[in-house]
Amino acid sequence: MGGVPPVEAAALFTLLEEDPDVEPVAQVRPSRSRGLGAIAEPHPACPPVAVVMMPEERARVLAANPQVVVEIDQPLSYTPVSWSSGGPGPTTPTDPMLAVPLAEPGRLGVRVKGNDGETVAGAHVWAIGAGASAHAVTGTDGKAGLTLVADTPATVKALYIHPVGDYWPLRLDHPRLGGGAETTVELTALAETFEGFPGQAITGWGAQAMRLHQIPPTYRGHGVKIALLDSGVDITHPDLKETVHTGYDFTCLGGERTWHTDATGHGTWCAGIIAAADNRTGITGIATEAELHSLKLFPGGHVSDLLEAVDYCITHGIDIAQINLAYPHPSQLVAWKLLDAHVAGIAVIAPAGDTAGPLSYPAALHGVLAVGALAHTGTYPVGSPHTAVQPPWPGPYTAPFTPAGPGVDLVAPGMSVITTAPGGGYIPADGTATAAAHITGLAALLLAHHDNLRPQVMPRTPARADHLHALLRSTCRPVPGADPARTGAGLADAPTALGTSATWQHHPGGNETTHAALAGHPPQG
Hints:
This protein is α/β, with parallel strands linked by helices. Helix content is 19%, strand content 21%. A hairpin with a 3-residue loop joins strand 19 (417-421) and strand 20. Helix 5 packs parallel to helix 8 (432-449). The longest helix is centred in the last third of the chain and has 18 residues, at 432-449. 50% of the residues are buried.
C-alpha cells in the first residue's frame, strides 16, 4: 500500500482501549485452536474484530483509513412480512405519523377457544384497523384485551389469531365486533384435521412434495453435523429431546446453558423439520440421526454474534450451517467470515427472506444457498390467512411472501408445514426458513448417503460444499406456471438428488397418516 505499514490488530485494539471516546464491548478473534479452523490458516479472510461504542464522528475518522473496516454492529432479526402478503403475521398498514389517536382509546375484548372446547392460552391477537393496529396475547382464560388507539370496533378491518401451537391460525375479515361486548373466536384444532394426531403420526405435505417418502428408510443422515443459527430450540419437546444435544447462546455470557430455550418458537419449528425423532408420534424429521447444534442468536443478537457463531461452526466441524437470522445492510465482515466457512468445507444455507421483494442478507451473498418458499392449495383449512391469497387453481404455487428475486436458488415447502412447537405441541409454520429447513435436512441425507459426497469419498472441503449446492440445484423439478425468478431451479426432489429409484414408496402404517401434496395434485388431509 505505497509503503504504508499494515495495521496490526493488536495495536489497533490497544489504541481503541486507550481512547477516552471509545468504550470497548468485545473482541471477535478467529479461533483456530482446534478442529477445522486450522484449514483457514494462516490468513483467514475475516480479520479480528473489535466491538466498541464510539461517537459517529470518531467512527468516520477511523473508517477513513483504508486498512480498517468500520461497520455498525447491526441487530439480527427475522425479515419483515407485509400484512397484504398473507404471511405469518401482520404489520401496521398505515404510517403511524398519519394516525389520528382518539382522546379516549377504545377497548376490544377477544376470547379465543378451540373447536374442541378448550381455551387457547398464549395466542397472539392482532386487530388490523383503518388507523392503526393493536396486539395482545391471550391469558390462561383465553382472553385478550386490545387497546384501539386510532380505531373503533366498527373500523377494525380484520382480526388475526396466531396460536402458539396445536391449532390453525385464523383471519377474520370485516369482523362484526360489538361495542363493549367480548368477541369469541373459535380455532380449528390440528387433531380435527388429522385424526388421532399427535398420538398418530403424520407425514407432512412438504415431505410428500419433495418425495422424501420415496427414499430408503435407512437414509437418516447419520454422522452429519448441522448448526441451526436461530432462536434456540426447546429440547424438552418429545420429538426433540433425543435429537438436539448441544449448542451455545451467543446473546449472553455463559451461553452454553441457555441455548435449549426458545423465546420465539422459530428455532424449534425448523429443528423439527430437520431432525424430529422417529418415535411414531407427532412428526418425523428428514435427517433424524444427524447431530444438530442449536446456536442461539435471537432475540438480542448482533452481526458480531453471528461472526462468533460462524466461527463456532468452523471450529466444531459443522457440515451444514442454516442461518435463519437476517440483517438489513450488507456486511463485508460477514461476507469474509462466510468465506472462511466455505474454506472449511461448510455448506451454508439460508432462507431467501420473507420480504416479497429482494433477497435478505446473508442469503444474497455469494456462496450461500438461498431458499424460497412454496405453498400448496388445500393444505390449510377455510378461514386460514392463506385462503385470501391463494390462486384460483389447485396445486403448488410460490408463497406470496417469498422474494421476487433474482438470486433465489431453489424452493421447498414453506407454508402450513406441520412441525414442532415449544411446550411439546405442534404448529403449522410459515416462512422461507421453514423451506430452508427442508433443504438442510435433504442436504444432510446427501452428505451421509450420496455415493459422491459420503465422507469416505469426499472429505469436508470447499469442493464438497460446492458440489452439494450444485447437486441440490441441478436435481430440482420446475414448478408449473411459476416465475423462475421466484423459484430458481425449482422444487428440490429427494430421489433424484440422492440417485435412488422411486421404488421405496413408504406406505403409512397403522399409526401414521399422510398429509400429502404432490406437484399438481391436491393434498389429502
